[in-house]
Amino acid sequence: MERARIGIPESRRTAVTGLQYIDQTTAGARSRVTELEDIRNAANALYGTFTPDQKKIADARMVSVISPRADAPGGTAGGDTAHYP
Questions:
Q1: What is the pLDDT of residues 18-35, one digit of tens each?
Q2: Beta carbons of 68 and 83 less than 8 angstroms apart
Q3: For the chain, which has fewer Cβ within 10 Å, the N-terminal or C-terminal residue?
Q4: Neighbouring C-beta atoms of residue 9, cutoff 10 Å
Q5: Does the global pTM surpass 0.70?
Q6: Residues in the chain with pLDDT < 70?
Q7: Which among 68, 65, 63 is positioned nearest to 84, based on CA atoms?
């Protein structure tokens, strides 16, 4: 729960219950999914216009555009290297 309060002066902090923290985290994850779906849809449309050589370049670069957040489960905060196909 401390992460939810980082950067907020102590005088402005409010108590966050465990369930409220889960609700906030879930809302953030939903927002990220929506954003990723928008990116996926745009990328699908653009990718379809690429030549085979452009697709190879795009394949190599797309993983750096959309990578796991370092603080998310499966992210790279623990020093693990992310693996991509």
A1: 999 999 999 999 999 999
A2: no
A3: C
A4: 7
A5: no
A6: 1-13, 67-85
A7: 63
